[in-house]
Design a protein that fits this description.
The protein has 997 residues and is of the alpha/beta class. It has 43 helices and 16 strands. The N terminus is likely disordered.
Length: 997
């Protein structure tokens, strides 16, 4: 269901400049006549108030107007009212009609601000009659009356008034700039988007030509212009405008509504990119701002938006959603006059319609939807976004009510409006296409459903690429969740049909989307940048490293060292977005790969298996707790991939959680074989070489270690198949030139985990280590003596093959040795033999816990919940504090990403659980695997489970012996597994080592 999301952030209290001489912005008449005149013209209203308290004794009428205007703009209602009362005799004693009208205009504006609508309207109408276009102040008066009309939602009349101001206001005047801005807001209400943009641009030019780019009115304009960009799907441009607006407001007087509008615009951007929790947080800040100044209309809008997003993010939390909508209604009723229609009332009717649906009160819900639709049509007609959204919501209501014909009619009408307002690339257009496709399925019109799904998928992919080319990585990941939801509904439809053309569409979609965020992030990191941008990139990378340090600290430690995670995250986001947009054409290298390309790339005795994991769609909702697993099988001779059902998440969990490890429990292994491989095996008779792209929980399965028959422990898939793992099958189709790698290797192993803080810092300062110092056993990580033997053996092997090696063990196995590759040239081979860690997210864990394990478990950032333990790690793990300039011995996946391993051909992690992480459907495992690949490593060998260090050392001996002879990691890995198997080792000792290219 769609939610209308554009925050009504127009600056209704734009900064009018009140005297005749200021109609020309560039005019400076009178600025020197007062110690605070300069501040007034620059929009520094807080300084005007401060100066007034010092120089008010001999004030002129103009200065009084400046001061009163400043109080109004600072939204100090109490002081404004007191000043009106105090100055009553002075105002009544004035004989100049224009001066009197200026004070009355300020009074009318003040009454509007405190939402005394009837009194404000009466005063405006009296002023208009008295002035009757005869005063120099008339354009200013008419502009503020237009603002009043917009406030009471007389949008047609407001447009006429704004346009009248533009006819009579002097060229390049403040009032003209403000009127362009106001007209843009009103045009936007009617979805006259071209007119709105032209109006905003005209206003922007006037402010900039006048040099008033630090004026709050300029910040307000940029904020509203940002909202237009969001509504027209130009998020990067919106972000830039908002960033400038925020900067102006932060450097100026802190005016509650201005701060609130910035938070509202931020919320819109977060919502549009799938960051629902961040959007809700921003709307809560909006509410705080407007509560401080008792602005009921803005509070009503913010509560409605908050409730709408909350209903999407937490659909089961109905009561809290209801409370937000109830609060919105209470505040709206404070503003609406009896019998008044309101767009905001229409939006609330829509919201209450959804709540009535939850209560199974369908007749009442239908009534709410229909009443809201009628209000919108009556107030602003049909050719606008609001009417289109209301139609879409009605369509969803009838779809859920299983009246597919009615739903289709509403969706079709909505689609036609969106097509005229926006374009086929707009999110509203593609979401309506998906809606219509679902309804066609209900109507059993499979061909029409297929056509609409394919069109929608194409638009969604275009939107993904459009967004990803300008977003930072985290925003890509957040938006990906929105897009994946659309794709998942299509996949549910396609697998039920199992038709050749849809199977090809599934394979095409999988190659287009799997690991897409990773691909963009890698391309961005590898892109060469100009000298002009090198300093910006250095600052960005420095911010990332500071943020990595801060993540490992408690809040108290962050405060001690002057770190703020919120500030650093925001700074990093802004820096990355600026870099992404500044690098020309870096995103234009993408190529589309199709099923036909994949089939053509395979040998006759080779198969490609693409595993799809997606939530089940019951026709109405996606259920993330019920995952389905299918396989697409491609062979050279096939004209379309074969689609095979494998299993579901419940059966898979039963095998993986209720048995001992499947490489140890033969019964579990046989069950797993029948569940996930036997269906595939029937389709690949005679095939030995397999290219496998897993998904979901199957990322954690080492297929070669599966036993087919519980009565025969040697009957392994390893005997029958050579399996190569890929994050995306399009890896088979992408040409990678063979880089020239140095003949150098770094071997790090057998770290001394236990150390006290004194020795820890001594080590990192490269001072002689004092013997006899107290070094307590801290745990939980015990020494791995087998890794010492492992790196000595590998060092000898590498040197025999003329590699220049560096070995770091014991006290020298410090995180500093790895961190040096932020800047230093990296080796061709990086081998790390130590403990790895991985934790699932625990919502009950504390981010303030002393023990690092609990802090990591509490983090929603999956790249903090996995990593490697190096020398001194036990000290940090148990709450020891290390100054920021020192490395703490815990190398998180988040820190690994910041390494520069572009010269590294092979990384081998001979450590437990290094292949584990958070499985993200379509994006692989968020952990060390992803981190080292993002850092630039071309090939990565790691383990999917805990291994005994002595057995790991023997495995690595076989691997390196073969690798150094052939320079082929996949061949060497298989040969090492074969050697371990022939020596009688259980698959648990060797099957868990996997290679990712």
């Amino acid at each position: 269901m769609k939610v209308t999301t554009i925050f009504n952030g127009n600056a209704r209290s734009l900064f009018l400049l009140c005297c005749t001489s200021i109609f020309q912005i560039a005019t400076t008449d009178g600025q020197e006549a007062s110690p605070f005149g300069h501040y007034f013209y620059q929009g520094s209203f807080c300084r005007v108030v401060e100066e007034w308290l010092q120089y008010a004794e001999n004030s002129t009428t103009r200065e009084r107007i400046w001061y009163l205007t400043a109080l109004l703009e600072m939204e100090d209602w109490h002081a404004t009212e007191e000043t009106f009362i105090k100055w009553g005799p002075y105002i009544d004693g004035q004989t100049d009609a224009e001066v009197i009208s200026q004070f009355r205009l300020l009074r009318a504006r003040y009454l509007q601000k405190i939402e005394e609508i009837d009194q404000s309207e009466a005063l405006f109408e009296m002023l208009l009659v008295e002035t009757a276009n005869t005063s120099n102040n008339y354009p200013e008066l008419l502009f503020h009356f237009a603002e009043f009309q917009y406030f009471i939602e007389s949008y047609d009349e407001a447009v006429k008034s704004y346009e009248k101001v533009l006819e009579i206001a002097p060229v390049n005047s403040a009032i003209r700039a403000l009127a362009h801005h106001g007209a843009g807001n009103a045009y936007k209400r009617f979805s006259r988007l071209v007119d709105a943009e032209a109006a905003y641009e005209s206003s922007k030019v006037i402010w900039e030509q006048a040099g008033l780019i630090n004026h709050p009115a300029y910040a307000d304009l940029l904020n509203d212009y940002c909202l237009l960009k969001v509504s027209t799907n130009r998020i990067p441009e919106a972000q830039e405008l908002l960033h400038i607006s925020e900067s102006v407001n932060q450097s100026n007087c802190q005016i509650p509504s201005k701060v609130g509008y910035n938070h509202g615009a931020n919320a819109n951007i977060y919502y549009a990119t799938g960051k629902y929790e961040e959007a809700m947080s921003e709307y809560r800040k909006v509410i705080q701002c407007f509560q401080s100044i008792d602005q009921n209309l803005d509070l009503a809008i913010a509560y409605n938006r908050l409730g709408g997003i909350h209903s999407l993010a937490f659909p089961d939390s109905v009561e809290l959603t209801r409370s937000y909508f109830d609060s919105s209604l209470v505040h709206l009723q404070q503003v609406l006059r009896p019998g008044q229609n309101s767009l905001h009332k229409a939006f609330l009717l829509d919201a209450f319609g959804r709540l009535l649906e939850y209560d199974w009160k369908y007749d009442a819900a239908d009534s709410c939807y229909q009443e809201g639709l009628a209000i919108i049509e009556n107030m602003i007609g049909k050719e606008n976004k609001h009417y289109s959204d209301a139609l879409n919501n009605l369509g969803t209501f009838y779809e859920l009510s299983e009246d597919a014909e009615k739903a289709l009619s509403f969706y079709s009408e909505s689609l036609a409006i969106v097509k005229r307002i926006y374009s086929k690339g707009h999110p509203d257009y593609l979401s309506t296409l998906y809606n219509m496709a679902r309804v066609y399925v209900q109507l059993d019109k499979v061909k029409s459903a297929s056509i609409h799904y394919k069109q929608a998928n194409k638009r969604q992919l275009e939107l993904l690429h459009n967004y990803y080319a300008s977003f930072d990585e985290q925003t890509r990941l957040d938006y990906r969740l929105l897009a994946t939801g659309n794709f998942d509904v299509f996949v549910n439809f396609a697998v039920t049909q199992n038709q050749p053309d849809l199977n090809k569409a599934l394979q095409d979609l999988s190659m287009a989307t799997k690991n897409l965020v990773f691909d963009y992030s890698t391309r961005f990191r590898n892109r060469q940048i100009s000298n002009e941008l090198s300093e910006a990139r250095r600052k960005y990378e420095s911010t990332r490293r500071q943020l990595s340090q801060a993540y490992n600290m408690t809040l108290g430690e962050q405060r001690n060292y002057g770190f703020s995670i919120d500030s650093l995250e925001k700074e990093q986001e802004v820096q990355e977005q600026a870099l992404v947009r500044a690098i020309p054409n870096w995103h234009s290298e993408r190529k589309e790969y199709l099923f036909a390309d994949l089939a053509a790339a395979l040998d006759p005795q080779e198969a490609a298996i693409d595993i799809l994991a997606f939530p089940h769609h019951d026709g109405l909702y996606l259920n993330p707790d019920s995952m389905l697993y299918y396989a697409l099988i491609t062979k050279k001779e096939l004209s379309a991939p074969r689609l095979i059902y494998l299993t579901n998440s419940s059966k898979l969990a039963e095998i993986l959680e209720n048995y001992e490890h499947y490489t140890k429990d033969l019964e579990a292994s046989e069950v797993l074989y029948h569940e996930i491989w036997e269906p595939i095996e029937k389709e690949i008779a005679g095939i030995r070489k397999i290219n496998l792209s897993a998904d979901g929980k199957l990322f954690q399965i080492a297929f070669e270690g599966i036993c087919k028959d519980a009565s025969d422990s040697g009957d392994l898939l390893f005997n029958d198949f050579e399996i190569r793992y890929h994050n995306n099958l399009r890896d088979l189709l992408q040409d990678e030139s063979e880089n020239q790698y140095p003949t150098s290797a770094v071997l790090l192993g057998d770290p001394t985990f236990d150390v006290d803080s004194t020795n820890f810092i001594r080590w990192q300062n490269s001072l002689p280590t004092l013997t006899g110092q107290t070094i307590q056993t801290l745990g939980p990580f015990d020494r791995l003596p087998g890794t010492s033997q492992e790196i000595r053996l590998l060092n000898d092997l590498l040197q025999e093959h003329h590699y220049q090696t560096k070995v770091f063990s014991g006290q020298r196995a410090l995180e500093n040795q790895i961190a040096s590759y932020y800047a230093d040239p990296s080796p061709a081979i990086l081998h790390i033999a130590t403990h790895g860690y991985f934790y699932q997210y625990d919502e009950w864990a504390s981010t303030e816990a002393r023990v690092l394990e609990e802090r990591f478990s509490a983090s929603k950032n999956a790249l903090l919940r996995s990593g490697l333990i190096l020398a001194g790690g036990n000290y940090t793990w148990n709450g020891g504090t290390v100054p920021p300039k020192f490395k703490d011995g815990v190398l998180t996946s988040r820190e690994v990403i910041d390494l520069n391993l572009k010269q590294t051909k092979l990384v081998v992690l001979s450590a437990c659980d290094t292949g584990r992480g958070k499985e993200t459907d379509g994006e692989g495992v968020f952990g060390l695997q992803r981190a080292f690949r993002l850092a630039g490593a071309r090939q990565l060998v790691m383990s999917l489970w805990k291994v005994i260090d002595r057995e790991a050392a023997e495995f690595m001996k076989y691997f390196y012996q073969s690798y150094l002879e052939t320079n082929q990691a996949d061949f060497a890995l298989r040969k090492a597994k074969k050697a371990m198997k022939e020596k009688g080792y259980s698959p648990y000792s060797w099957a868990g080592f996997v290679l990712y290219n």
